[in-house]
């Protein structure tokens, strides 16, 4: 694992995409979380299967994970990354809107 203080410098678009793909796999492996994600986004499972690497979908996955602290912490433990990394990754993907 990369030390946290280096994360901002080393978490570029490619690493952000990789982390988002890991988040998608994590959510997809949890039936309840997957159902909530599909309900929240309005995506159909078939559509998600067709677009797993779509940057907009990946941004939505990170938004979903970031919106549930328990899910976020479980995901970060699963992939062995600091909890702030998904938020940093989200800034590198399309559709990011900084908080007011």
Detailed description of the structure:
The chain is an all-alpha fold and 100 residues long. The chain has a domain at 30-94. The protein is built from seven helices and no strands. The protein has helices at residues 4-10, 13-28, 31-41, 45-50, 55-66, 69-79, 85-90. It is globular, with a radius of gyration of 13 Å.
Question: What is the rounded Rg?
Answer: 13 Å
- Could you report the average pLDDT, rounded to the nearest whole number? 90
Measure the end-to-end span.
31 Å
Structure summary, number of beta strands: 0
Question: Which structural class do you get from the secondary structure elements?
Answer: mainly alpha
Q: What labels describe this entry?
A:
single chain, 100 residues, mainly alpha, 69% helix
Task: Reconstruct the topology from this structure.
Elements: H1 4-10, H2 13-28, H3 31-41, H4 45-50, H5 55-66, H6 69-79, H7 85-90
Quick recap of the structure?
This protein is mainly α. Helix content is 69%, strand content 0%. It has a domain at 30-94.
């Amino acid at each position: 694992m990369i030390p946290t203080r280096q994360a901002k410098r080393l978490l570029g678009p490619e690493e952000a995409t990789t982390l988002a793909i890991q988040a998608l796999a994590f959510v997809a492996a949890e039936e309840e979380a997957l159902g909530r994600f599909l309900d929240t986004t309005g995506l159909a499972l078939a559509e998600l299967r067709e677009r797993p690497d779509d940057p907009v979908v990946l941004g939505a996955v990170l938004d979903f994970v970031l919106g549930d602290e328990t899910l976020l912490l479980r995901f970060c433990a699963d992939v062995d990354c600091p909890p702030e990394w998904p938020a940093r990754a989200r800034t590198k993907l399309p559709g990011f809107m900084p908080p007011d």
